[in-house]
Amino acid sequence: MLVSPAALFVSHGAPTLAVEPERAADLREWGRSLEAPEAIVIVSAHWERTPVSIGTTTPRPLLHDYGGFRGPLQKVTYAAPVAADRADRVERALAASSLESGAVQRVDDRPWDHGVWVPLVHLFPESRVPVLQVSLASRTSPRRLFEIGQRLRRELGPDTLVIGSGGIVHNLRAIDWSETDLPPAWASDFEAWARDVLVRGDRDALMDFAARAPALHLAHPTLEHWLPMLVAAGAGGLGDTGSPGPRFPVEGFEYGSLGRLGVEFGASVD
């Protein structure tokens, strides 16, 4: 029995997750439960650009956009096709709206960063589903990010999976590479708050995270890994009447406080 979600939020973890099959076993299991969509449109924490911009529509080598990691990680490839046909639909969804101060832009020389390919090598390892990356418009308001997700869903329809790729808790300064300690209270408290808001479908609380979320400054010293959640929640119909509640196929922490939570929005069973 396969599941067809409207949207996903993926905590993509450290870049080395791409070459650690044991650590990524839960992500691979999640991928096996998914009905393969016709295309993927993905918003990554590692491409912040306002107004919303559309990445490459032609095949390009992957962007290895990180420092300090060598060896097998540099050899990772992900040769999925590019979902170039979704670019016009994304532009239609957003360009004529009041969401952005400028028109949607095309940046065809922008390849897929590790926020794209790290989760996809496990979720869809056969590299057959076409992919299009859209920038994270991090300078817009939380409400507008949620609305961007809604507009993407209306325009793209059920055959396209919208993914927000970031991290439920992401504080690199607090990482414990030895993994000898349990997650600190601030990390588990923030994650518990986020899960509760999602389960209740409380979109207002989600968009008001700056005032309501506990330990935000510790869980997210900068917000780029959290904001893709808003796009995914909007695309997934969070809070819509009759919308199925979210599922959490991937849970837990790695390296002490780095959250691994994965969220599945608006799933239907085939």
From TrEMBL:
Organism domain of life: Bacteria
Organism classification: Bacteria, Pseudomonadati, Planctomycetota, Planctomycetia, Planctomycetia incertae sedis
Example of a GO MF term: oxidoreductase activity, acting on single donors with incorporation of molecular oxygen, incorporation of two atoms of oxygen
InterPro entries, sorted: Extradiol_dOase_DODA (IPR014436), Xdiol_dOase_suB (IPR004183)
Leader peptide range in chain numbering: none
Coiled-coil region: none
Keywords tagged on the record: Dioxygenase, Metal-binding, Oxidoreductase, Zinc
Cofactor(s) annotated in UniProt: Zn(2+)
Domain Extradiol ring-cleavage dioxygenase class III enzyme subunit B: residue ranges: 9-238
Native source species: Saltatorellus ferox
Zinc listed as a keyword: yes
Gene3D superfamilies: LigB-like
Pfam families per record: LigB
Name recorded for this polypeptide: LigB family dioxygenase
Family, similarity comment: Belongs to the DODA-type extradiol aromatic ring-opening dioxygenase family.
SUPFAM superfamilies listed in its UniProt record: LigB-like (SSF53213)
